Amino acid sequence: MRKKIVAGNWKMNTLPAEGVELAQGVVAKSAEVCDCVNFIVCPPFTHLAQVAEALKGSKVELGAQNCAAEAKGAYTGEVAASMIAALGCKYVILGHSERRQYYGETSETLNKKMEQAYANGLTPIYCVGENLDEREAGNHFAVCKAQIEEVVFNLTEEQFKNLVIAYEPVWAIGTGKTATAEQAQEIHAYIREVLAAKFGELAAECPILYGGSCKPSNAAEIFAKEDVDGGLIGGAALKAEDFIAIGKGFMA
Ligand code: PEP
After folding, report:
1. Nearest CA owner, ligand 1 atom 1
2. How far is the CA of 124 from the centre of ligand 1 (A)?
3. Measured between alpha carbons, how far is 220 from 198 in angstroms, rounded to an integer?
4. Which of 168, 178, 215, 218 to mutate to test the pocket of ligand 1 (most atoms within 8 A of CB)?
């Protein structure tokens, strides 16, 4: 049985006090959802420690939105995987399209970040997905395949057992446009096939999340698909009620 996961990517939103309040709301409401759903929140670096405190004793886990490609040293402004792990993070989002697009993250950088994540006991949530031009040209399968082959195929089997993948079509992120449940299932099944070519039957255990304008009104339909194991949620993760309502999509 694959893990069911609803992860919130808060991006560059919330001040520390707001983040703590949001985390407390998520903790309080998470009791309304069965324990089979794993909730993760990924606040900005600046309040990971305070949010970790707010999550203590709850079933809600902590993740970061990024980590450095290097272990430590003279890298001004960077935050090492060891640092976020020390603050209580269990997960780290890597390869988000905003980081690929605005900060030039390449597969080469992401390979290093993945190594750092694993070296520090973190589970990467590795994002893949095509932009609108690529989708319209019918290249979405090839784009996702390359993003997986160039990074995930470098993992050992042990590392792969601790990986979450998020399929996030760039055209659906923050745009209000959601992939249909059928589009999500089609590409999730394809991604699993690509993973199976390298990792065999372990591919059946890898959680693949959908991300892109997922909200309470569409989560249940998308999560009902066989190869969709949850969601990576942006905008709707900023309201505890909506975030938890998305998790309830598994109970519909
Ligand atoms: C995201 O950026 O990971 C995301 C899915 O954003 P949104 O839900 O706002 O589209």
Report:
1. 234
2. 17
3. 31
4. 168
Q: How confident is the model at residue 252 (pLDDT cuts 50, 70, 90)?
A: confident
Atom 7 (ligand 1) nearest CA: 234
Domain that holds residue 103: 4-251
CATH code where residue 200 lies: 3.20.20.70
Nearest ligand 1 atom, CA 93: 3
For the cut 90, the answer to whether the pLDDT of residue 176 exceeds it is no
Q: How far apart are CA 129 and CA 79, in angstroms?
A: 25
Q: How far apart are CA 127 and CA 147, in angstroms?
A: 9
- Count of domains in the chain? 1
Predicted confidence (pLDDT) per residue in 113-124, tens digit: 999 999 999 999
Q: What is the pLDDT of residues 196-229, one digit of tens each?
A: 999 999 999 999 999 999 999 999 999 999 999 9
Residues with CB under 6 A from ligand 1: 9, 168, 173-174, 211-214, 232-236
What residues act catalytically? Answer: 96, 168
Tokens of 131: 């932009």
- C-alpha span between 194 and 160 (Å, rounded): 13
Ligand 1 mean position, distance from CA 116 (Å): 24
Residue with tokens 């505890």: 240
Task: Give the residue whose CA is nearest to atom 4 of ligand 1.
Answer: 234
DSSP β-bridge partners for residue 211: 232
**Strand stretches in 80-175, DSSP E:** 91-94, 123-128, 164-167
Beta carbons within 10 angstroms of residue 24's beta carbon: 16
